[in-house]
Design brief:
133 residues, 5-stranded antiparallel sheet, 1 helix
């Protein structure tokens, strides 16, 4: 019985430690001239990844494609390894509202601003500057 209690306590402590490492930051502004506009809502800094919550904004009933994304900080650059909402290298279409929610995963990085998000599409490479409001 004592071993079970110790295991439960250790499991809870490791979960609390994992949860406390996550750091969600809101209040970003985005600017840039780009074939694809991205508006960042928040960035979740975790020990295993950095997830950017944002919206791809475009004209309703038009399409585009995202081939790759890279986040550039003063200490280096990080290539996106996953995107939810649309697929890399596949066309997507904006519906009536003209906004598509995206979750973009990057390797773990520090919470610093400003950041540059490079977006590669068939229409060229665009750069969006991300900074705190």
């Amino acid at each position: 019985m004592r071993k079970i209690c110790v295991c439960i306590v250790l499991s809870v402590l490791s979960f609390v430690s994992f949860v406390s490492e996550a750091k969600v930051i809101r209040g970003y502004s985005t600017t840039g001239v780009n074939p694809l506009s991205i508006v960042v809502d928040s960035i979740d800094y975790r020990s295993d990844l950095t997830r950017v919550y944002c919206n791809a904004v475009g004209r309703p009933h038009t399409s585009n494609r995202i081939d790759a994304m890279k986040m550039i900080l003063k200490d280096g650059s990080y290539v996106a390894n996953d995107i939810d909402g649309v697929d890399f290298k596949r066309y997507f279409q904006w519906e009536d509202e003209g906004s598509i929610p995206l979750e973009i995963d990057f390797p773990p990085m520090k919470a610093v601003t400003p950041m540059r998000l490079e977006i590669v599409s068939p229409h060229g490479t665009g750069v969006i500057l991300i900074k705190k409001k």
